[in-house]
Amino acid sequence: MYKKQEDFLIGNFESGNLAHAYLFSGQDVESIENFTKELLGVINSAIPQSAGMIKIESFPDLLLVKSQNSKSSQDNEKDMMEISIEQIRNAQNFLSYKSYYGNFKAVIIENAERMTTEAQNCFLKSLEEPKGKTVIFLLTSRPDLILPTIFSRCQQVKFFYKGKQEVSKDEEMILQNIKKVINSDLVEKFNYTKTINLEGEKFNKILNILQKYFRQNLLSEVGVIEKKPTLEGRVFTAGQTSKILRLIEKLSYQTSIYNINEKLALEVLLMEI
Where do the domains of the chain lie? Predict the structure, then answer.
């Protein structure tokens, strides 16, 4: 899927020019994370035979940092979309130890834009003064939310997915439910937001699904691509589509920074649509 990026990064490694920190940006963070793990499998391929077959997720020289594991998420029993300074300090402590197998110590920060400002500032030392054979990967779909001081200390690699993206059963179900409510009156829309379960990252999935659709709609309106099927017969002008996309971007930003009322945010979005 990401052949060009793979050739570039493997080339860096083989020539001894692997950077100590990378910022991987793209819309599909999950596939970028899988790519990063596969890349680490290549970089740290010289594992002693005595180690046997080890899944990269269980590799002792890899630490995966994500908001679901923050103390605030565990205390609230849901993802609070925040990577705390404590998690970053733990990552720094992890990188300070020697490699288990003598290869690269690696840290992957999933959805790096969720790092608090304090966490990002704390991380600067690791980016400025890397120790030994260490490599840090920041994965994000919102590079604009990364502090410039962090941004400038990482080698940036962009990931564009041009092929046909498969839709999961969960996403397909969400889309079907949205189609049912999209032409409903306000009462039906309010009932939908009242009963829907937004636990985990379901609200973000809804935003992503609608963002994909309206981006396609905008491209079709300006003639870049062929006309795409509309949501349950609805036709949106380029102006309407742009306004909706700006609202989706605003809600996505607020969700990543603040603990907003997601049901209220979804009501506001559905009223606009």
Answer: 3-158, 169-272
